[in-house]
Amino acid sequence: MKIATFNANSLRARIDIVVDWLNQNKPDILCIQETKVQDHEFPYDQLDTTGYNYIFKGQKSYNGVAILSRHKIENASFGFDAEPYDKPRLARASIKGINIVNTYVPQGRDIESEHYQYKLQWFQRLKDLFDKNFKPADPVIWLGDINVAPTDIDVYEPQTKLTNPCFHEDVKKQFQDTIKWGFTDIFRLHNKNPEMYTFWDYRLPNSCKRNLGWRLDHILATKPLVKKSTACYIDKTPRLLDKPSDHTFLIAEFDV
User: Fold this and answer.
1) What is the largest CA-CA distance in the chain?
2) Burial classification of residue 159, based on how many CB atoms lie within 10 Å of its CB (0-12 exposed, 13-18 middle, 19 or more buried)
3) Alpha-carbon 112 to chain mean position
4) Is 153 exposed, middle or buried (CB count within 10 Å of its CB: 0-12, 13-18, 19+)?
5) One digit per residue, pLDDT tens: the chain, 256 residues?
6) What pLDDT, in 10s, does the model give residues 52-67?
7) Three-state SS for 14?
8) What DSSP letter does each residue of 60-92 carry, written as one string?
9) What is the Cα 190 distance to its own chain's centre?
10) Hey, how many other C-beta atoms are within 10 angstroms of the C-beta on 24?
């Protein structure tokens, strides 16, 4: 099974890139974040040409998550239980017996702001969600734009990023604490080299060609799926196309 994640930074603006990538790569599951589209404006027509099933929850100009699957999507839900505000940031579903948790974790803005505290709390809420709905022995995939570069090798010039809300010590600790619930970083299971990124900032001139990036997008799995993990890799090509997202596709393969 091939499972991928992609922050589209506006699905309608990137729909041709997404459709072309689906047709060429044929993943079983693609999770998308930052769709930035209200539900009634979701690009049904273009996605229907792919033959994928899909669920989604969005809002105008911000956030938004979707799960696309070649297989039946079951038990779909959005957001944290009984808290509607974060529905466009979290989608859950069961696909062929695998529990998928697709997250667009808040960026945090500034470590002195309330937005950063909210981001830290988000990871605790995730742990609570995992505790309530799953066991570490269950087949669970947690993936998406998690907005954390976990270690020095996951960001360019790390010593200049120590106060960044995606690299500050507190957010890295919260991320690791959530991983300890029962997850393994599938990319690092297969790739130990530095300078392998999924995000390159638009605001930095030629950031992608210069490889001044961050590894902010992740695919994490519980032990039953770690044992069946065969590969995990970044497809940088879509980031080099005209009018790309600032992120690119991350893909994991499992022998299931």
Assistant:
1) 46
2) exposed
3) 25
4) middle
5) 999 999 999 999 999 999 999 999 999 999 999 999 999 999 999 999 999 999 999 999 999 999 999 999 999 999 997 666 789 999 999 999 999 999 999 999 999 999 999 999 999 999 999 999 999 999 999 999 999 999 999 999 999 999 999 999 999 999 999 999 999 999 999 999 999 999 999 999 999 999 999 999 999 999 999 999 999 999 999 999 999 999 999 999 999 9
6) 999 999 999 999 999 9
7) coil
8) SSS--EEEEESS--EEEEESBTTBGGGGGGEEE
9) 18
10) 9
Residue 209 CA, chain-centre distance (Å), reads 22
Structure tokens at 27: 């993943």
The CATH number of the structural domain formed by 2-254 is 3.60.10.10
The secondary structure element, H or E, covering residue 142 is strand 140-145
Assigned token pair, 86: 């974060």
In single-letter form, the type of residue at position 103 comes to T
Alpha-carbon dihedral of residues 186, 139, 134, 145, nearest 10 degrees?
A: 30
Interval 192-243: pLDDT, tens: 999 999 999 999 999 999 999 999 999 999 999 999 999 999 999 999 999 9
Average pLDDT score, the chain:
97
Cβ atoms of 8 and 33 closer than 8 Å: yes
User: Residue 188 is encoded by which pair of tokens?
Assistant: 């690092």
51 in the Ramachandran plot: left (φ > 0), alpha (ψ -120 to 50) or beta?
A: left
Domain boundaries, the chain: 2-254
